[in-house]
Structure prediction request, 316 residues.
Amino acid sequence: MQKKTWIAAAALGAMLVTGQAWAADKKVVAVSIPAADHGWTAGVVYHAQAAAKELNAAFPDIDVVVKTSPSASAQVSALEDLSASRKLDALVILPYTSEELTAPVKAVKDAGTFITVVDRGLNDPSIQDLYVAGDNIAVGRNTAKFLVEKLGGKGNLVVLRGIPTVIDDERIEGFQDGIKGSDLKILDIQYANWNSDDAFKLMQDYLAKYPQIDAVWANDDDMLLGVLEAIKQSGRTDIKFALGGNGMKEIIKKVIDGDAMTPVETPYPPSMIKTAVYLTVAHLVGHAPARGTVKLDAPLITKENAQEYYFPDSPF
Prediction:
């Protein structure tokens, strides 16, 4: 599916030049995403708006509408408003949370709308026609395997979770699977909402509670920033590694610079929303039918390959 995906994306790129020739009837594509409440979602908003601008310019008979929501309940309301005000031919949605958005998205689906789900999956995957995401299990597993190797298979870990979503569950599943069979012990694991300030406070609690911590996995780079600040302020020297995930440019720069505490990273590009919108439009205009699952790789980023993932001018 992944190879077909990039073929479809390339084909749609060519369509941007001759969009009017492909579109017959006015079709509405709603893009529902979380508001820019941290760095990664800021990148999502940036790329979603860029996709809408490009496609609306190329296809006068395609109307891509982007709606951001600051909470799960606000996103539910946004879906209701979008559905009530017009017929939706397609919905591209990055759910704020999995559980709260599953039933509302099903209602949109039942009205005959093509559903593309991005990143945070729904609790019922049968609702989606297309799913685009990074490999969250690999994000967790590859990070865990690095720690097993570098810590000699033993040590104390603390873990920070994001918010209750399918992708958070998958990252934790991959991480726990990666340390299986070793003597690495998870002392504590709590939610910090993919938020730097919440992660700072939680890490302070961990530092006060546990006198010996060998490594921290923050699950996400925004949380990692809070973790690193808490460690810095504590003056603790027992923590050998503090790792995140998602490919934030500030963290990639640490890897490039050979930072001892954060020497590796895993990618999870917010630009996946743009890929999802492009593929959805390609499907609607009949140029490149797209159904199924598209998973983006999550290889370990090291000092040797970090430059390939470093984009200093990007919003994330």
In short: The chain has a mean pLDDT of 91. The domain at 2-134+269-296 is CATH 3.40.50.2300 (Rossmann fold). The longest strand covers residues 183-191.
